[in-house]
Write a structure and sequence with these properties.
heterodimer; A: 290 residues; mainly alpha; 2 domains; B: alpha+beta; three-stranded mixed β-sheet; two-stranded antiparallel ribbon; 7 helices; 11 strands; 18% strand; elongated; binds iron/sulfur cluster
């Protein structure tokens, strides 16, 4: 799949934002007044900023309101509804914290659940697609949610939870990569089923339908990512998980905490880039590619 | 509404004959010609005369080489447009309701006024049947020429999809695949029509007819084995060359004997 910067920025940033909102809704950290305002501001910049990046991906962002209508069948529509719901509920909760020094537990709890649900709906947009076997598997949603909770814990300065979640997410991340590598072969889709000509013999793409490229090839066939996959995975693991754990285990200081957050964010961007760049769409088979 | 109808009154679709398609791309051209000036936004081209031409098409023809275990390879031309799937994943993923499947005839369409151009439906389609138009930024797909097949302003013989009407070798057939007595259904039954990527669970309405088995050349003269071979060892200059080359060290590669 083509790793579009707008989608990578959107899923990563909003994942962090909604992860942080989840912790804030649960009253972690337990600040009020101006410090609470700063935490809420960071969360909203990430979550709303991510959502704004996602509209750059749309051909007609001016019609975006229509995307709230099809929650009965569409995960993308459900994501929009959950996101707006979470942002509204958490804004009410945030007003209580910042201006009235109140912890409205029920509202915060609902906001936290909606925030996590938003991340889940995002993950399901990818996990539902049978056409991309590497995404269409049970670990995709746990991966997105674990990463959001990890990032949220780091941003909310919940050191113990963050260390635990970093280790937990690293395990899910590696498992996701290992399982993902076999998914296309296991899906049973190949050039023979794509063309239905397997009963005659081995199928080879002889001539594409056109001399140039097209939307399908630009969008679905991306081979550069796979070339350096092992190197990039190592970079993502070290930056995203190993270094942050080391920084957090050092005697606590704000500067190390900042390093941990920055490394983690860079690592997750790398992982998310790979998530797209490595994914094979079955339509590539019609072009003899993947 | 992007939930799928539980059943449709008809299942209009195409039957594509891989045996007779000659790979002329006439259907590609007629499809583009009709659809760029009828239903919805035009089908744009980018740099059509430049170094890197590309454009939107609703129907494309691939060509495959298939190598059987024995005998010569076969070249098979393979037209592909939307298969108007019964269980169309492109419809259910659409967040706006722009994509829908019609209850009356099963045609899958995009209401371009509602499309936000998110591209998710193209991601969900296993067949590459949807293309985002780079100029209009809305999703384009085969309409089964919905503006021809019911169009009473056209002469009766033209009330079928442009690609079907144009095909010079009769490789594309249009009809109701939900009616088991229709011409297309009988054709599919007789020729063993099949689904593309059945494992995707999309239940495509369009069907493909396999290439007919190739016959093999039989020995046509029962006396042939008893005849003297016509070709003898070459004499003269070629004979000398043959012997001279044989004497050189190393194998003579590339020859039949
Ligand atoms: S072929 Fe693709 S675009 Fe057409 S109905 Fe099936 S899934 Fe949808
Ligand atoms: S590109 Fe248009 S038709 Fe396709 S899913 Fe998005 S809104 Fe629906
Ligand atoms: S039915 Fe019409 S829109 Fe569909 S491929 Fe044929 S000519 Fe194109």
């Amino acid at each position: 799949m083509h790793p579009a910067p707008s989608i990578i920025l959107f899923t990563t940033l909003s994942g962090f934002g909604f992860g942080l909102l989840t912790f804030l809704g649960l009253g972690m950290p337990n600040y009020t007044g101006f410090i609470a305002f700063v935490f809420f501001a960071i969360a909203y910049v990430l979550a709303v900023g991510g959502l704004l990046f996602s509209t750059f991906h749309l051909g007609h962002p001016e019609r975006a309101l229509k995307a709230f209508s099809q929650w009965r069948s569409s995960w993308l529509s459900r994501e929009g509804i959950c996101a707006v719901g979470a942002l509204i509920v958490m804004a009410i909760y945030g007003v209580g914290r910042v201006f009235f020094a109140q912890h409205w537990g029920i509202i915060g709890g609902i906001g936290a659940i909606l925030s996590l649900l938003t991340v889940y709906t995002t993950s399901m947009i990818y996990a539902q697609l049978k056409t991309v076997p590497r995404w269409n598997m049970p670990l995709t949603s746990p991966l997105f949610m674990a990463l959001a909770i990890t990032g949220g814990a780091l941003l909310a300065a919940q050191v113990k939870i963050a260390i635990f979640m970093l280790i937990f997410s690293a395990i899910i991340q590696v498992a996701y990569w290992v399982m993902g590598d076999g998914r296309l072969a296991a899906s049973g889709t190949n050039m023979e089923t794509a063309t239905g000509l397997g009963h005659i013999g081995k199928v080879k793409a002889f001539e594409p339908p056109h001399t140039g490229t097209n939307y399908l090839m630009r969008e679905f066939i991306h081979v550069v990512g796979r070339k350096h996959a092992m190197k990039l995975r190592t970079i993502a693991l070290v930056l995203g998980f190993v270094l942050p754990v080391i920084f957090l285990l050092l005697p606590f200081g704000h500067i190390f905490a900042l390093f941990a957050v920055l490394c983690h964010i860079a690592g997750i961007f790398t992982s998310r880039w790979l998530f797209f760049a490595q994914a094979e769409h079955v339509v590539g088979l019609y072009y003899g590619k993947r | 509404m992007t939930t799928l109808p539980t059943s449709t009154q008809k299942k209009l679709g195409l039957v594509i004959d891989l045996d007779t398609c000659v790979g002329c791309h006439a259907c590609v051209v007629s499809c583009k010609g009709w659809n760029t000036e009828n239903y919805g936004a035009p089908l744009s081209d980018q740099k059509p005369y430049g170094g890197d031409p590309s454009g939107t098409f609703l129907n494309r023809v691939h060509s495959y080489e298939v190598q059987p275990d024995e005998g010569a390879a076969q070249l098979i031309h393979f037209p592909k447009s939307c298969l108007h799937c019964e269980d169309a994943p492109c419809v259910t993923v659409c967040p706006t309701g722009a994509s829908y499947k019609r209850v009356e005839d099963g045609i899958v369409l995009v209401n371009e006024q509602d499309c936000i151009g998110c591209g998710l439906c193209a991601w969900a389609c296993p067949y590459g049947a949807r293309e985002m138009d780079a100029a209009e930024k809305v999703m384009k797909k085969c309409t089964l020429c919905v503006d021809r097949i019911y169009n009473e302003n056209l002469p009766e013989e033209d009330r079928q999809p442009a690609c079907v009407r144009t095909c010079p070798s009769g490789a594309r057939h249009f009809g109701d695949l939900g009616d088991e007595n229709s011409d297309v259904s009988i054709l599919v039954a007789e020729r063993g029509g099949f689904d593309l990527m059945p494992e995707m669970g999309t239940k495509p309405v369009n069907q493909y007819l396999p290439p007919r088995p190739k016959d093999t050349m039989e020995e046509f003269d029962i006396l042939a084995p008893y005849l003297e071979p016509v070709a003898k060892d070459a004499g003269g200059f070629l004979g000398w060359l043959d012997k001279a080359l044989d004497k050189l060290p190393g194998n003579s590669a590339g020859g039949a004997n």
